[in-house]
Amino acid sequence: MAYMLNPGAQSEPNIEVHKFYGGTVLFATFLALVLQAFLHKFGRWAELLDLPLLVTVYFGVSRRNPTTGLFLGGAIGILQDALSHDNPIGLYGIAKTCVGYLASSIGARIDTEHPIARFGLVFFFFHFHQAILAITQRVLLNRPAPFFTLHLFLDSLATAAVAVVIFALLDRLRKPS
Amino acid sequence: MPDIVSRHRPLALLAGAIVFQVLLLAFQIKREHDVPLVRSWANELFTPLERAGTWSFSKVGGVWHSYIALRDTRAENLRLQSEVEKLRIRNRELEGQAAEAQRLASLLSFRESHPEAPMLAAQVIGASADPNSHTLFINRGEKDHVRRNFAVITPDGVVGKIVEVFASTSQVLLINDKESGVGALLADTRTHGVVKGNGDSEPHMDYVGNDEKIQLGATVLTSGEDRIFPKDLPIGTIEAAAPGNPFQSIRVQPAAHLDRLEEVLVLLPPPELAPKKSESSASASAAQSGSSSAKTALPAPGNAAAQKSLKPATHPIAKPPAAKPADTDTPAAQPAPPAPPQ
Questions:
Q1: Are B90 and B37 within one domain?
Q2: Residue A177 forms part of a structural domain
Q3: A136 at interface of B, judged by CB pairs closer than 8 A
């Protein structure tokens, strides 16, 4: 846990920090938000996926810098709030800020290149993200929000499975080391 | 402090980002009564401080006001107590004056409602020293043209009659005195009788036969037969009735508050009787030589001629009599009661 709180001080020098082509992060973020908004039109299955969460996790673990990770997560979350109908600005922002920070911290410590590791990582971050959302909604908005349900569990499995594919596609946008 | 922040820079940034977004949420979220959450938080944050400050100031102020600033309190307390006493006395005076004004207003209203009836307002200035005698003294006497046997009333009802006249005062015999008697009749059945005092606070109505049905609460009016009280003035109401021998025993609750009279009205003779004054007064003076009543316009009760001359006896203040039932008006159905004692 200590390395999560202070990753900069204890980062492993042998873990590779991936670089991306210019505009990749912005483009991927924009595309994730647009698709997230756009895919809702095509049915209930689209709600299973949280593409902005996948982008946050992917770039967090790839860049391995908690500062950029939390700002990227915060920005994606605030944009997601802004695009939603009735969410107050900051609801997803807080959750994704925490996800971005934690993903960068974990990415700096462990290998996140293996598909199984990625599946587990996204599965974990899905529920972490949901937990932060539920806490925020319960404490600040006085809304009943679940921490865990079977539906969320299935969502998390689907999102993690899709994440393995999307992460592999995003790997192609990395600069060669 | 800056070292700690720089060493934990990402963590500090995370905290800052979360706090910023929480504040952002707090500005948007509305709680009860449409109050933004941030305002609610600000209140919750500052209210305890304000409360603590107020409490501290009140304690300090309490110490000041309760101990230090009380040097002159004793003198002030004495002065205020004295002032309270004065105000209490003044208050009692004003209450008395207000009550008197109300009573006088009532008398005035009664007088104004009967402008054709000559009457004289008088103040009760004393009562009889004998507990068995129900008499009063009023502040009107001979110089106010008050004479014996003048009726004394209040707006509530009959009080009594003048029995003694002095220069500036007169004595009034109340209707509950055992020497008193008033010609009376029941308002509903027109049954005649005599209301007599027996020394109690409540007079009795005599000479009502046992076959007469008496209703409790029925109004008793003057009949005018005594030549003193005009007809149809309220005397009181029937409080109790029981068969007796030979007449019923009927207790009457006086309409006037005889035990707390302060102002009364003395009924003066009607102006139209003035031409007969000399004649009747001559007869009266013959009957009661030396009495001040000789100067009055009213005849002695036993003087039949004078009584005849006064037979109209309907004083201007008397109400028009109610419709008499046919059976009670005939001598056969209602034997005439004996003349009331005067």
A1: no
A2: no
A3: yes
